[in-house]
Structure prediction request, 349 residues.
Amino acid sequence: MGFVAVAALALLGYRTTSKRFNDYGYTTEIALVVAYACGITAGLGELLLAISTAAVAALILGLKPELHGFVQRLKRLEVLSTIQLLVVAVVLLPLLPNRDVWMEGLNFRTIGWFVLLILGLSYLGYVSVRTLGDRLGILLTALFGGLTSSTAVTATLSRMASTQPQAVPLLAAGVLLACAVMPIRLLVLTSVVNDALANHLGGALIVLAAVPVGVAIWLVLRHRDADAAASLALNNPLELKGAALFAVFLTALFIAVPWLEGRFGSSGLYIAALISGLTDVDAIGLTLAEKSITTTAADIAAFGILLAAWSNTVVKAVLAAALSRGRLTRLVTGTLIAAVLSTALFHMF
Prediction:
C-alpha cells in the first residue's frame, strides 16, 4: 500500500506541475518512486541491491544534461531502431526454436544471438560517430566507424584523398586504423563463440591489425600538422532490411559451409570463406567458430577465418587505391598487402 500511495503522490505532483508550469518532465517523480523502492529493498535486507540501485539512479540524474544532448543528436528513426533491437532481443529471440532445424547445426536461436551480437557492436560504432563525429577528429571517427563498417570508412576517406592531396597522410592513417579494427573485431566475436578457436587465431589476427596500426601511428607522428574534416556516411546497422539480409546471409552460410565441407572437404570450406570475405567477414567468422565446436576441426576453421580476413583486407586495399586515384596506393594498399603477407608468414611458422 505504501508503494501505491507514493506512486499516486508522484502522479498527482506530475499533473499539478505540468499544468501549472507547462513542464512535462517526470524525472523528479520517477526519482521519488525509485528512492522509496530503494528504502523498501534496504528494509528487506537487500542492502547491496538498494545501494547499487541508488548509485545508478544518482549517476543517471547527474548525467541528465549529457543524456538529453545525446538523445537530441539522434534522429527519430535511430531511436526507433534502438527500440526495435530491444524488442528483437527480449521478445522475438526467445520465440526462436532452440534446437536443430532441418539439418544438424542449423539452430535459429543461435543465429539470432549472432545477429544481435553483430548489430549491437555495429550500432555502438554508428552511434559514436553520429553523436561525437564532429568532435572526435578524423582518426577517432575512422576508428569508431570501423566498428560499423571498415569498408565504408575506407571508401569515404579514399574519395576524400582524391580531392585533398594535402591531407593524404592523415586520411591514410584513418583508413589504416579502420582496417585494423576488422581483425580485432573478428577476434572478439570468435572469442565470444569459441574461446579455444580464438587461441588459434589470436596471434595472426593481432599481426593483421598491428601492421596498419604501426604505420598509422608513424604517419600521425610524422605529419602532426596535417588536418582534414571527416564526414562519414554510415548506414544505420539496425535498419530492418539490413538486419534481415544479414540474418539470411548468416543462415545461408550455416547451410552452405557444412555442405561444401562434406562434398569437397576443407577445400570447399576455404572457397566459401574466400568468397564470403569479399563482402562480409563477420558472418563467415561466426559460422566457422560455431562449426568448430561440433563438426569442423579447429585448425581448418581457423585457416578459413584467416582466408576471409585476408580476402576482405585485399578488397579494401584495392578500393583505397582505386577511389583515391592512386594517392593511397603506397601508404594504404602497400601496408595492407604487407599486413596480409606478414600474417601468412606468422601463420606458417
